[in-house]
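Peptidoglycan glycosyltransferase MrdB, Terricaulis silvestris. Tokens?
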Amino acid sequence: MTALSIGSSPNTIFDRFRKLNWGIITILVALAFVGVLMHFSVSSGAWTEMPLTHGMRFAVLLSILLLSAMFLDTRFWLAIAYPLYAVGLLLLVGVEVAGATRMGATRWLDIGPLSLQPSEIMKIGIVLALARYYHQLDARRTGTVLWIVPPFLMIVAPIALIMHQPDLGTAMLVMFAGLIVMFLGGLLWRIIAAGAIVAVGGAIFAYTSLLHGYQRDRVNVFLGITDDPLGAGYHVLQSKIAIGSAGLFGRGYLQGTQSQLDFLPEKHTDFIFTMIVEEFGLLGGALVLGLFGALMALTMQVALRARSLFGKLAAAGVAATLACYVFINTAMVIGLVPVVGIPLPIISFGGTAMFTLMAGYTIVLSIDLHRDQHGARGWLW
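Tokens:
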């Protein structure tokens, strides 16, 4: 499909505001509220910079989300899909050439007063670019080898650059979201099976030749090859102690021992789910996971209702990105996957993950509001 035809879309600002997907918006607000509560607990019950910054950051991004969703329709997102991907890729190359190194990783690009993390742009860029590719591709060509090469290269190029930074967690997010869009775009099962075999070989090669020492140590602890409770295994050990002692209802708000006594590291970012379970128990953890599950379900509902293939794939790609965030983070804190530094979206402290997810849901809300646009070439080309 290459032509764009305009279906019926809400005409007035009031109509657009009223027809926004308020179910998705409500869940986003609820998750951000959980984040503020937990950062208040991280700050030992004080309204310090952390809970206030988290709440204000979300409020600003939510305002931008609502305005953008109302005024930017499907044609806009399709028009910027390839340019956004290209800019993200060029910025990743720029990180290799002149990136800023912090905490042992070269992931940032300083442009004047701005400090950018281009891998965050790529999380959205890869979804939009692949959605546009399959939207404009003849359905009869989706399973042929020749037409699989371009999306494959579109995924591999940023992954290679992100792995070199190193940032294994973000590389996994980009890969998972890209593969989901390829699968929904019509990738054949036999090609998926062949890709899985190649992926296993690639994982072995990455373990032996590409991973940095601290990354390999984390994998070794996860696999049980080494036992390092005071080093590479310390984070997960403390997390398991906190979760294992929480019980059904938890120790109570502001009463977690591992978190309040600072045994639990990175409790405001990567291990904030551990803190939720320790203070509110398995029921509290299940409630948070339920909110994420409902958000994913509503996002997939948007994908199913969209009339354009681009809208379907873009919304599904955002849902896949969210699912990958939540799965890796929660599995990481209980030792089901190695520690790779993935935050819990909307709840963990930090602007990059929140910005990425809010940008993704700007696209989702826009696609839902203008779902009757059943084809798309874009505003500019």
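Residues 1-6 have pLDDT under 50 and may be disordered.
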